[in-house]
Amino acid sequence: MARTADRHLKKTVKTKAAPKIFDVGNYLRLSVDSDYTGSDSLQNQRKLAQEYVRECPDLNIVREYVDDGKTGTDFSRPAFTRMIADLKAGIINCVLVKDLSRFGREYIEAGNYIEKVFPFLEVRFISIVDRYDSADANCSKELLLISLKNLMHEMYAKDISKKVGTTFRMKQQKGMFYRSATIPYGYKMNENGTNYIICEQTAPIVREIFKQCSKGISNYAISRWLYDNHVYTPQQYAWTGNVYGKPEEELKIWHCSTIKRLLENPVYIGRVIRHKSEQSFFVGKKASPVPQQEQIIIENNHEPIIEKPMFEIVQKILSQTKDKKAESACERQTVVFERNVFQGKLFCGSCKANMVRIGAYRSVNGVKEQYKIFKCSTHRNHCDLCDTRWIAEDLLCDILYATIRKHLSLIKGIKKQVEKDIRYPFEKKLKQTEWKRQKIVGTKNLLEQEYMQKYSDYAEGNISQAAFLQYKSIYHEKMELCRKQEDVCTKEVKGIKKCQAALQKLLSDWLCFQNTRKFTETMVEICVDRMELFTDNRVEIKLRYQDCFELLENWMRKEV
Asked: Which of 245, 288, 356, 423 is an S-S bond match for 249, by CB 3.0 to 4.6 Å?
């Protein structure tokens, strides 16, 4: 019989501990050569993950990471890198993938993440198809099978890379034709996709270009003829399938370099050159050019558009043009820089086209001298499409040097004050933003605690399923709002730190020129962002760190 005193003891009721809710990062990957409509498509991977999470109340997808067209043989992928950064930041604590091949095909690195990195970060890893969940104690014995699978994935990638390379090399050595990345203008593929055949729409354009060049007509004149006849460029033809544009359409100009490449291409006499470059698909080695003697030439591969005698005449004319340019370069010339350091930085103020660097002549003390000028590429090709303007390279350099020296004197004059006083507004703004972020984090923690309590009530049967699902929907909305607000704060902090770092870099970069007494190429690279030339010889210059200069000016007005 039980003791009498025991009757007065209160019976303790054991409550179930609320399960931990994992913030899931769903990782999706699709290779460049994957079948976009097959089982590994991004849509199918996403759908499978959503169905899996729907059956697991302790999982909640908060982020999705997509590497579209990225190989699995290395881990240098943008979305994967962001996912690892979010793991370290604590934004997510669970990684969900369709299968291990989506995660990666490199055996050693994949095993390192699954067996070392994720356990160290206390991150849960789930592979749906492989039925692996690191939170399940019964799955611990399957790590060996996972490692073996990863090894198989890596060997598969290496094997495919080797087979592809071997197939291409065999076709090259046997003189077999295979399609290149782009079909040459003037040709199209036959019905079987096994060789080039003449395109009756564009072949006459190719013949006319060769015909005009053989008569000594310059590439600029040929470009003008193409424009006047509303002939689409090869790129526009590939997009639209039309050879000619309408008169009211704004046409693109055939660049002289495009015409030159077309005239030099031996594909128009039935010759195909293969093995012009090499690369490793698996290692990720970039394509590198192959010496001409090692390239493979396939003669009479397809029907030619141009007769060989005419092709040889054109090549001779092109060679003579090169020789003339080489001879003119030997004359006395004034060159500020050997190469065009303003490439991609100097533009026309009207049509916004690139300003091209060309040679011009002037007389200095009775001596003919060659110097460099910049002209609008649109006006140079077609004078009526843009008004004339040009500027000498040495004059442009003088203008830029004076501008840079002016801003340099501004920086030198207030260097110490900037380093001392401008730090405090940054620190104040950072503290305010960080306080706001911490407040949002506190709200998120309260919401999570409330959610855990509601889930516990639901698990014990204290509230109905409908009430819990309604609350869960509201909870996700509030959490999503908090995450967006937190992202705004995070971006604001990054912006402040970026501006502060830019100011420091501005000082270090620009002050290295304080003892320089001539204009240098490094000045252009570091200081100049963009320049536009107008017809009144006015040059608008946008310096790099322009926003930093505005910040300095505001600071001088005590507006910071």
From this structure: 245
